[in-house]
Design a protein that fits this description.
binds iron/sulfur cluster, binds ligand MGD, Dimethylsulfoxide Reductase, domain 2, binds molybdenum atom
Length: about 750
C-alpha cells in the first residue's frame, strides 16, 4: 500500500477499521513479536479484529507454549492509545497533518541536509523489532542510495558484543547450535541471563530437560539471584563486572585437571593475544601459563566467588554435553566482547561444540535482532550476510546487487549509536529517522541524548503509541505493527519465520516499510538518490525478500532455498538453507550424513561425518583468546559506593509502550522498584516500600525500595520499563561502551543510595 493511496482511501472511508469486511472466524499461524525465543503462535481473527492468541502446538521449537506478554498482544494491537495520524511540530506543538504534508517535509529536510552538508549529515536509527525487509530496505537506501554508513539500531545496545564475540572467535556471527541442543545437554551454563523472565518458553524447555534426567545440572552465574538461581545446582554470585576473572579461573581448573580435548584443540583451535593493538599467535603452553595466575583462590579475591564454587562449576562444565546461554549480563559491558570470548574459550578447550547438546549460544533479546539487523548488516560497520563496509570487495558486491553507483558505500564505518546521538547533539547530524525503537527512554545516560533529540534540527519518529521519543520529535508518523503487516523475523537459532498481515492498522497508520519506500521515492525525485534505485524495484516485502535471498547466495548465510512460499507454509527455516528442498541447518560448522548438519556453501565435503571445521575463522581454526580480566568502566568508589544494575521483569517489555497497554500486565507490575540487599537496607535504614534516591554522576531517580536478598550486597537492581520522570532509570546509567563492540555498559555504574521523600506527583 502506497502512502498516497492510503491517504486517499482514508479520505473516503475515514476509518479503515470500521471498513474491515466481515469474515468467518479463523486462526492464523504467526510468530510472537516479543522476545528472541520466537514462539510460534496462532491468532484468532473475528470481524477484522484479533480477539485471541494461543501457542502453536505444531511449532517445532516452542511446541504450543507462550508466555503472558504474548497472550495480551491482541490488547496491544487494538489499544485505544494507538497513533492514528501523522503529526508535525508547529509552534512547539505536535499537530495533526496529512501524510502528504508530513512526507513532503521529511523528504525535504533529508534532501536539504544531504545537498548542503553531505550524506553523513543524515542518519537512520532502527530496531531488532523491525521486520527483516524493513531493516534491509533502510540499509539499502542509506548506504547504497544516499551514500552514508550512518545506519544503526538498538541491537547496538543489545547484541553487538555477542556479534563481536562470535566474529573474533569463529570468524562469522550467529550461534552455530540451535534450541535442539537443549534436549541433548547434560550441563547448562547460564551466565548473565535471566532466562526465566526474559526467555520464559526456552527456560521451560531447559526445565523439562532437567526434569527428564536427574544427571542434568544447571550452573548459574549472576550477581543477582534471579529466578533461575532457584533451579541452579551450582549458583555463583560474582561481583558485577568481575566474571572475566571467574571464567579464566574455570579455564584454569579445566586445564589443570586435564579436561582439555587435545585432538579437538589440535585440529580446530588456535590461541591469540592482543599485543600493542595487534593480534599475535601464542602457543597452548603460553595460554596455560597465562591461566596460572587465575587459581580459584586468587580469583576468589577478585571476583568474590568462593574458590570451592569455582572448582565445582568447572568440574560440572566438563560433564558435557554442555550448552551455555548468556544475554545482557555479559553483553552490556565495556568488556562484553571479551566476556563472550571467554565463554567460547571453555567450549573450544573441552571440544564442547558442534555435538548435539554442546554449544556456546548467545540468546538474542529481540524478535528480529538476528535476522533483521545482524544478518542484513544494518549497523554502521557491516553489510548484508557477513560482509563488512571496510572491504572493497564486499562493498562492490552489494553495490552491484543493489544497482548503486560504484563507490557509493563509504569505506569508513558510520557513527555507532552513542556517537550518532552525540553527533546529533553537536548538530552534525541534521536529519534523523527513528523507527520501532524508543531511544528517548532506552539510551543510557539519557539526559544529554534526550536533549540532543529535542534540539536537533530534524528528527522523525515512527511509532504505534506516544512515547518519550515521539515527544521530542519534529514529525511523528503512525506505524502499523506486527500483525498489521507481513514480513520475516529471524530469531536466535537462525530460524527465519514469516508473520502475515491479519488485521488492518488503525486510522491512517501504515507500515514502516511503506514509509521507507515512500521516502526513497521522494529522495529519488529530489535527486539525492539515483532515479529508480528503489522505486523501480519493489512494491512490497515479498519483492524485497527475493533480493535478500540473492544477497545471501554463496555466503555462509545462504538461504536462497527459503522462498516466500516455503516460509508462508512452513514453521520457519534455519539458515543455511541453500536449496529449495533443504530442511535448514541445526548445527553449523559440522559436516555429516544428517541433513540438519551444515551443508551450506562453505561446508567442507572432505570432512568425515560429525567432524567440525570452523570454515570462516583465519586458517579455519577458532580462536581461544587471552583477554586481560578487566572490570567495569565505573566501579563503586567512596563517593558512589553502590553498583547499579538494570534489566527486566517478566511482564513488561523494555520501555513499556506495548505491555503497559494491557491492563492485566500493567497491574501485575504496576510500579518501578529498586531491589536492595537486606544488608545494605540495614545500613541505609530502608524498608520495602520506602522511597530511595539513586544518584549517579549523571542523574537521579526516586523509586520505591524492595528489600530482598537478590542483588549481592553492594548492588542495587532497577528494571527499565517505567517512563515517569522519577523512575526513568536511564538518567542514571552510563554510556561508556565496549571499545570493540561499541555496546554500552547498562549493567554497571556507580551510585549513591539514600532514603528519600516521595517524588512529586507520586
Ligand atoms: N520480559 C521480558 N523479556 C525480554 C525483554 C523484556 O524487556 N522483557 N527484552 C528482551 C531483550 S531485547 C533482551 S536483550 C533480553 C535480556 O535478557 P537478560 O539479559 O536475561 O535480562 P536482563 O534483566 O537485562 O539481565 C540479565 C541478568 O544480568 C545480570 N547481570 C548484571 N550484571 C552482571 C555481571 O556483571 N555478570 C553477570 N554474569 N550477570 C550480570 C543481572 O543481574 C540480570 O539478572 O530479554 C528479552 N526478553
Ligand atoms: N537501563 C537499561 N536500558 C536498556 C537496557 C537495559 O538492560 N537497561 N537494554 C537495552 C536493550 S538490550 C534494548 S534491546 C533496548 C530496547 O529499547 P527500545 O527499542 O527503545 O525499547 P522498546 O520499548 O522495545 O521500543 C520499541 C518501540 O517501537 C514501538 N513499536 C512497536 N512495534 C512497532 C512497529 O511495527 N513500528 C514502529 N515504528 N514502532 C513500533 C513501540 O511502541 C516502542 O516505542 O533497550 C536498551 N536499554
Ligand atoms: S517467550 Fe518470548 S517469543 Fe515466546 S511467547 Fe514469550 S515473549 Fe513471545
Ligand atoms: Mo535487547
Amino acid at each position: 500500500m502506497k502512502i498516497s493511496a492510503a491517504a486517499a482511501a482514508v479520505a473516503a472511508a475515514q476509518n479503515p477499521l470500521s471498513a474491515a469486511t466481515a469474515e468467518p472466524d479463523r486462526w492464523v499461524k504467526s510468530v510472537c513479536r516479543f522476545c528472541g525465543t520466537g514462539c510460534g503462535v496462532q491468532l484468532r481473527i473475528q470481524d477484522g479484529r484479533m480477539t485471541a492468541l494461543r501457542g502453536d502446538t505444531e511449532h517445532p521449537t516452542t511446541k504450543g507454549l507462550v508466555c503472558a506478554k504474548s497472550l495480551f498482544l491482541p490488547k496491544v494491537v487494538h489499544s485505544p492509545n494507538r497513533l492514528k495520524y501523522p503529526m508535525v511540530r508547529k509552534n512547539g506543538q505536535l499537530v495533526r497533518t496529512s501524510w502528504e504534508e508530513a512526507m513532503t517535509l521529511v523528504a525535504s529536510k533529508f534532501a536539504d541536509a544531504i545537498k548542503s552538508s553531505g550524506p553523513d549529515s543524515v542518519a537512520y536509527y532502527g530496531s531488532g523489532q523491525a521486520m527483516s525487509e524493513e531493516s534491509y530496505l533502510a540499509n539499502r537506501l542509506f548506504k547504497g542510495g544516499i551514500g552514508t554508513n550512518n545506519v544503526e539500531g538498538n541491537p547496538r545496545l543489545c547484541m553487538a558484543s555477542a556479534v563481536g564475540g562470535y566474529v573474533s572467535t569463529f570468524g562469522k556471527d550467529e550461534p552455530m547450535g540451535s534450541y535442539d541442543d537443549i534436549d541433548h545437554a547434560n550441563t547448562f551454563f547460564l551466565i548473565g541471563s535471566n532466562t526465566a523472565e526474559c526467555h520464559p518458553v526456552l527456560f521451560d524447555r531447559i526445565m523439562a530437560r532437567k526434569q527428564s534426567d536427574r544427571s542434568v545440572k544447571v550452573i548459574c552465574v549472576d550477581p543477582r539471584k534471579s529466578p533461575i538461581s532457584t533451579i541452579a545446582d551450582i549458583y555463583l554470585q560474582p561481583i558485577p563486572g568481575m566474571d572475566l576473572v571467574l571464567m579464566h579461573s574455570m579455564a584454569h581448573v579445566i586445564v589443570r585437571d586435564g579436561h582439555v580435548d587435545p585432538d579437538f584443540v589440535e585440529k580446530n583451535v588456535q590461541f591469540k593475544a592482543m599485543v600493542d593493538d595487534a593480534a599475535q599467535n601464542v602457543t597452548f603452553e603460553e595460554y596455560a601459563r597465562f591461566l596460572e595466575d587465575f587459581s580459584p583462590e586468587k580469583a576468589e579475591k577478585l571476583c568474590g566467588v568462593p574458590a570451592a564454587q569455582i572448582e565445582a562449576a568447572a568440574k560440572q562444565f566438563v560433564e558435557g554435553p554442555t550448552t551455555s546461554f548468556w544475554t545482557m549480563g555479559l553483553n552490556q559491558r565495556i568488556r562484553g566482547v571479551w566476556a563472550n570470548n571467554l565463554v567460547h574459550n571453555m567450549h573450544l578447550l573441552t571440544g564442547m561444540i558442534g555435538k548435539p547438546g554442546a554449544t556456546p549460544f548467545s540468546l538474542t533479546g529481540q524478535p528480529n535482532a538476528c535476522g533483521g539487523v545482524r544478518d542484513t548488516g544494518s549497523l554502521c560497520h557491516i553489510l548484508p550476510y557477513g560482509r563488512v563496509v571496510a572491504k572493497e570487495e564486499h562493498r562492490a558486491e552489494m553495490e552491484a546487487l543493489w544497482g548503486a553507483k560504484p563507490g557509493t558505500i563509504p569505506a569508513k564505518p558510520g557513527l555507532n549509536t552513542i556517537e550518532m546521538f552525540n553527533a546529533l547533539g553537536r548538530g552534525e547530524i541534521k536529519a534523523m529517522l527513528i523507527l520501532t525503537t524508543n531511544p528517548g527512554q532506552s539510551l543510557p545516560n539519557a539526559l544529554p541524548h534526550r536533549k540532543a533529540m529535542k534540539e536537533a534540527p530534524f528528527v522523525v519518529v515512527l511509532d504505534i503509541v506516544p512515547t518519550l521519543t515521539t515527544e521530542l520529535a519534529d514529525v511523528v508518523l503512525p506505524a502499523a505493527m506486527w500483525a498489521e503487516k507481513s514480513g520475516v523475523f529471524g530469531m536466535s537459532e537462525r530460524r527465519y519465520q514469516y508473520h502475515p498481515k491479519v488485521v488492518d492498522a488503525p486510522g491512517e497508520a501504515v507500515s514502516d516499510f511503506d514509509v521507507l519506500l515512500d521516502l526513497a521515492r521522494r529522495l529519488e525525485a529530489a535527486g539525492v538518490v539515483p532515479a529508480g534505485y528503489i522505486s523501480s524495484k519493489f512494491e512490497n516485502t515479498d519483492d524485497v525478500w527475493d533480493e535478500m535471498r540473492e544477497a545471501s547466495r554463496n555466503t555462509a548465510y545462504d538461504f536462497t532455498g527459503a522462498t516466500r512460499e516455503r516460509l508462508k507454509a512452513e514453521r520457519g527455516l534455519r539458515w543455511p538453507v541453500p536449496t529449495e528442498d533443504h530442511p535448514g541447518t541445526a548445527i553449523r560448522f559440522v559436516k555429516g550424513a544428517d541433513p540438519l548438519l551444515d551443508s551450506g556453501p562453505y561446508a567442507d565435503d572432505t570432512l568425515k561425518p560429525g567432524e567440525t571445521k570452523f570454515y570462516a575463522a583465519p586458517d579455519k581454526k577458532a580462536v581461544v583468546w587471552l583477554r586481560p580480566p578487566k572490570g567495569p568502566a565505573e566501579p563503586a568508589d567512596a563517593e558512589y559506593p553502590y553498583v547499579l544494575s538494570t534489566g527486566r521483569v517478566l511482564e513488561h517489555w523494555h520501555t513499556g509502550t506495548m505491555t503497559m497497554e494491557a491492563p492485566e500486565l500493567k497491574r501485575a507490575q504496576a510500579r518501578a522498584f529498586c531491589e536492595v540487599n537486606p544488608v545494605d537496607a540495614k545500613t541505609l535504614g530502608l524498608r520495602t516500600g520506602d522511597w530511595v534516591r539513586i544518584t549517579s554522576r549523571r542523574g537521579e531517580c526516586v523509586i520505591r525500595a524492595r528489600v530482598v536478598d537478590m542483588p549481592r550486597p553492594g548492588m542495587a537492581f532497577v528494571p527499565m520499563h517505567w517512563a515517569d520522570d522519577a523512575s526513568l532509570i536511564n538518567k542514571v546509567t552510563i554510556d561508556a561502551y565496549d571499545p570493540g563492540s561499541k555496546q554500552p555498559e547498562f549493567k554497571i555504574c556507580a551510585v549513591k543510595l539514600a532514603k528519600a521523600e516521595a517524588p512529586e506527583g507520586a
